[in-house]
Amino acid sequence: MFAQLITTFIPFSHTITQIQKPITHNQITNLKPQTNQSQTTKKPNNFSSMASPNKDQTITNETTNTVSFSSSSPIFISTQNLRTILTHQTLINHIDSNLPKVSTFLQTPIRQHYNLSPSSSLLLMPSWSSSPSFPYVGVKLVTHFPQNSSINLPGVQGSYVLFNSTTGQTLASMDSTELTLYRTSCVSGLGSKYLSRDDSEVLVMVGAGSLAPHLIRAHFSARPSLRKVLIWNRTVEKAEALAKKLRESEDFSLSGLSFEGCGCLDEAVGFGDIVSCATNSETALVKGERLKVGAHLDLVGSFKPSMKECDDEALKRGRVFVDNEAALVEAGELVGAFERGVIKEDEIEANLVELIRGDKVGRRSSEEITVFKSVGSAVVDMLAAQFVYEAFTGK
Predict the structure, then answer these.
(1) What is the spatial distance between Cα 285 and Cα 170, in angstroms, rounded to a whole number?
(2) Gap between the Cα atoms of 126 and 118, Å rounded
(3) What is the mean pLDDT of the chain?
(4) How confident is the model over 56-101, as pLDDT tens digits?
(5) CA distances in angstroms from 54 to 18, 104, 175, 309, listed in the order given
(6) Closest C-alpha among 373, 343, 376, 367 to residue 275
(7) DSSP state of 49
(8) Which residues does residue 141 pair with via DSSP β-bridges, in sequence order?
């Protein structure tokens, strides 16, 4: 799940100014309260009205009707601010409303992956707009140092930097760990909205890492019919610890959801109306024969051909969907299945944009099994960053 996840950005104190703004309660739905201070955030405008630059960055000459840009300092949006702005429901709605349109004018080259050493690597994921109605350039920078766990540091770290596409000015930097956790889980939640049964009651969460609680919240946002979450992890204690943490969370105090850690994955999968996987596994965890009739399988973790979270039988039994075409060359489950002749590329049913637009049909019956494989994209990174930036600055 490295390609989808990133962690804390360390601000450059001499170049980035952190800005605080006051908040009014009605400006964005489901805001989480701050402990010692308030901030103003509001839901971003629809992207079609984004052409106006930030007031702090423009000076209009009324005589010549020209606009000049000042050199105001970029802002740093902290993890705390980002958590205040974002909810899984609002980001799912934002992606659902805007992904098809922005996909037509956002340029997103293939991510650049550099090996820094046999075990560490650097990823660069740029995206830029060709439309004046969406005046942004964004770059996500990620490092992967898996050996950091031995010194109690995150293995994946990075930042997201947003620029003005008209002037090239740096607008903001933000914690891309949290940004990516939200956008990755919300893509899965959006996939669930179109592909899982609307009467789904049991969610099986495979993996108990940092993405797991976000995936649970995103799937619950898409399917409020959920009543039970079963959490499996190779280390049973971690699964039980996460279940306990979520049981005690205020977010779920009135939800009616129950949480349990479980030790047998095969047994748990058999109960799952939705099975969501977020692991770094290189061996199949979910066996297709164990999936119940009408199940939805959500695969998040793999991002290279050597990785896979389910076996070939799961793909053969299900109708397979992807978030975008990169999954066809990056996801180990699909690459391996193509090579072995289990399925063909033209048997992939649709991508997320096609589902949202209604070009392709999602779930067709309550009996069929659906499989959704996501690998992430710079387009959704940009949409999430735009949402956060515009809410924070009040645009």
Answers:
(1) 43
(2) 24
(3) 85
(4) 444 333 443 433 344 578 999 999 999 999 999 999 999 999 999 9
(5) 16, 24, 21, 44
(6) 373
(7) G
(8) 124, 159
- Type and span of the H or E element at 338: helix 332-340
**Interstrand relation of 156-164 and 136-144 (parallel, antiparallel or unpaired):** antiparallel
- HSE at residue 259, side-chain half, CA atoms within 13 A, is 23
Instruction: Report how far residue 284's alpha carbon sits from residue 265's, in angstroms, rounded to the nearest whole number.
Output: 12
Q: Cβ of 292: how many Cβ atoms within 10 Å? A: 13
Three-state secondary structure call for residue 183: helix
Long-range pairs of 389-392 with CB within 8 A, sequence gap ≥ 24:
389/44, 389/77, 389/162, 389/171, 389/172, 389/174, 390/44, 390/45, 390/50, 391/28, 391/41, 391/42, 391/43, 391/44, 391/85, 392/19, 392/21, 392/39, 392/41, 392/75, 392/77, 392/81, 392/85, 392/172
Amino acid at 146: P
* Class of residue 148 by CB neighbours under 10 A (exposed 0-12, middle 13-18, buried 19+): middle
Q: Which of the two residues, 159 and 21, has the higher pLDDT score?
A: 159
Q: What pLDDT sits at residue 266?
A: 97
C-alpha radius of gyration, the chain, whole number: 21
Length of the chain: 395
Q: In this structure, what token pair is assigned to residue 185?
A: 């889980």
Residue 366 has pLDDT above 80, yes or no: yes
Residue 103 has pLDDT above 80, yes or no: yes
**Local confidence band at 42 (pLDDT 50, 70, 90 cut-offs):** very low
**Distance of alpha carbon 186 from alpha carbon 178, whole angstroms:** 12
Looking only at the bridges linking them, the beta strands covering 112-115 and 136-144 are unpaired
Nearest by Cα to 126 from 147, 141, 148 = 141
270-311 residue pLDDT tens: 999 999 999 989 999 999 999 999 999 999 998 888 999 999
pTM, whole model, 2 decimals? 0.81
Distance CA 360, CA 363 (A): 10
**Dihedral of the CA atoms 356, 361, 363, 368 (nearest 10)?**
-150
